[in-house]
Amino acid sequence: MRPHLALIEDDSDFALMCRSYLERAGFTVTWAMDARAGKAALHEGGIDLAVLDLGLPDGSGLELLRALRSTSRLPLIVITGRGAEADRVAGLEIGADDYLVKPFSQRELVARIRAVLRRAQPPDTPTVFRIGPLRIDTAARQASCEGFLLVLRPKEYALLEMLAAAPGRVFSAEQLLDRIWGASWQQPATVIEHVYRLRGKLARLPVPAPRITTVRGYGYRLDP
């Protein structure tokens, strides 16, 4: 099935360019030129993700986003010519899954859409990973080592789960950002900080635990 996108954008030249590129990339695109048409397209259903311009002729895109988030968790990417940090933060706080400032490449838009759709997919059947003494329960979102529970923040847990799902495999910072943070507005330093904190928690366990190894120039892996 081709993912169905709602493109809510009032600039017709830009919208036609986006729609053409997205359709060639394997998406079905419904184009709406203003907030009213955008609401109608979203109300009809069958949309897998919305791409929303904040500057619409008949209202604020932020208001449309706020109204959508009051009833739905539909994946949504904000696009706009507004580069101010306040606009970006407002969109993200209201519930946008990602944010792109014009001008941007069509290739990047496709990559962002695919990343958001991946994150929105229902989780796989709950699984328990075991790497040496480390046990990760994906249903409970808990990690323990010989009965000692690790107290982890959500992103720390997600990082450990991703590494534990493929022990010995090296993941680059870019891969970790894409899978866990969406690689949208975070920096590689975010990964470095979370790896540092996670290593500290593993090291403070009263029993030997797997370790996160830095492979210089490549990324990180989990070793038993």
List key phrases describing it.
single chain, 224 residues, Rossmann fold, Arc Repressor Mutant, subunit A, 5-stranded parallel sheet, 24% strand, phosphoprotein, transcription regulation, DNA-binding, CheY-like_superfamily, Response regulator transcription factor
The level of helicity is 40-55%
Contiguous runs where pLDDT drops below 50 for at least 5 residues: none
CATH topology of the largest domain: Rossmann fold
Q: What is the quaternary state of this protein?
A: single chain
CATH architecture of the largest domain, by name, is 3-Layer(aba) Sandwich
Rounded Rg: 20 Å
Q: What shape does the CA trace take?
A: elongated
Strand content: 15-25%
Domain Response regulatory: 4-117
GO molecular function, one term: phosphorelay response regulator activity
GO biological process, one term: regulation of DNA-templated transcription
Pfam families: Response_reg, Trans_reg_C
